[in-house]
């Protein structure tokens, strides 16, 4: 059993939290390319080995993030049997690093033009967010010294607050800053104002 499979429930909750905050589908694979967690259509296939996962293989081999803006046109897509017939519109994959060694991959996947546009326009802060979520997963791995697992609670409110802070930071100094941040987050301006007040970000 891989380290991520050992804490599968926590990994699944993390995937769901990421999807809820970023409004995009998420899948998390371990170093054996077993889908440990997923949202949307990916949730049904958890526990299965991912076939033709050339992007994730590359991320695991190099420890580097990969952004696929035009599926089918990126060189990592060429060996895939579905190349040219892919149902994905864009993808961002980043490694889960433990002691600088990749032990898994977090993938953000868009299945429609709206999700793809949000991902590509906001890839920098989305990347920052999922890197932080990867660190959260690592912090929940079994403590080998203690021989037991001490699971850290997942606080969706804290994740949401962090996402709002990052989005506002990305548009700092720009005209109609809050409106742009709300668009990045996929929420209405009224909801953003309410959240800013709720989290005391004024």
Keywords:
single chain; 202 residues; alpha+beta
Please write out the topology:
Blueprint lengths: L2 H4 L1 H15 L2 E6 L4 E4 L15 H9 L3 E3 L21 E9 L2 E10 L2 H9 L1 H17 L16 H15 L6 H9 L3 H10 L4
Antiparallel strand pairs: 1-2, 1-5, 3-4, 4-5
Helix pairs in contact: 2-5, 2-6, 5-6, 6-7, 7-8
What is the compact description of this entry?
By secondary structure, the protein is an alpha+beta fold.
Describe the protein's architecture and organization.
The chain has 202 residues and is an alpha+beta fold. It is 44% helix and 16% strand. It contains eight helices and five strands; from the N terminus they run H-H-E-E-H-E-E-E-H-H-H-H-H. The chain has a five-stranded antiparallel β-sheet, sandwiched between helices. Strand 1 and strand 2 form a beta hairpin. The protein is globular and about 45 Å long. About 4% of the residues have low confidence.
Radius of gyration: 17 Å
Helix content: 40-55%
Strand content: 15-25%
> Could you say which structural class the secondary elements and strand pairing correspond to?
alpha+beta
- Please give the largest β-sheet: 5 strands, antiparallel
Strand arrangement, largest sheet?
2-1-5-4-3
Strand count: 5
- Mean of residue pLDDT? 83
H-E order: HHEEHEEEHHHHH
Please count the helical segments: 8
Give the overall form: globular
Distance between the amino and carboxyl termini? 46 Å
Contiguous uncertain segments of 5+ residues:
144-152
């Amino acid at each position: 059993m891989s380290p991520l499979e050992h804490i599968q429930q926590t990994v699944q909750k993390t995937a769901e939290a990421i999807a809820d905050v970023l409004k995009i589908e998420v899948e998390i694979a371990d170093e054996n390319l077993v889908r440990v967690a997923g949202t949307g259509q990916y949730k049904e296939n958890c526990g299965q080995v991912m076939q033709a996962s050339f992007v994730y293989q590359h991320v695991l081999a190099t420890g580097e993030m990969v952004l696929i803006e035009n599926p089918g046109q990126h060189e990592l897509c060429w060996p895939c049997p579905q190349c040219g017939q892919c149902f994905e519109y864009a993808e961002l994959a980043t490694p889960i690093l433990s002691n600088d060694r990749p032990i898994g991959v977090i993938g953000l996947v868009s299945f429609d033009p709206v999700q793809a546009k949000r991902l590509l326009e906001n890839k920098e802060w989305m990347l920052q967010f999922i890197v932080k979520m990867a660190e959260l997963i690592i912090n929940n791995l079994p403590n080998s010294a203690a021989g037991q697992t001490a699971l850290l609670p997942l606080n969706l409110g804290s994740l949401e607050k962090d996402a709002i802070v990052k989005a506002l930071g990305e548009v700092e100094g720009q005209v109609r800053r809050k409106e742009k941040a709300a668009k990045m987050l996929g929420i209405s301006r009224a909801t953003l104002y309410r959240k800013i007040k709720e989290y005391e970000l004024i």
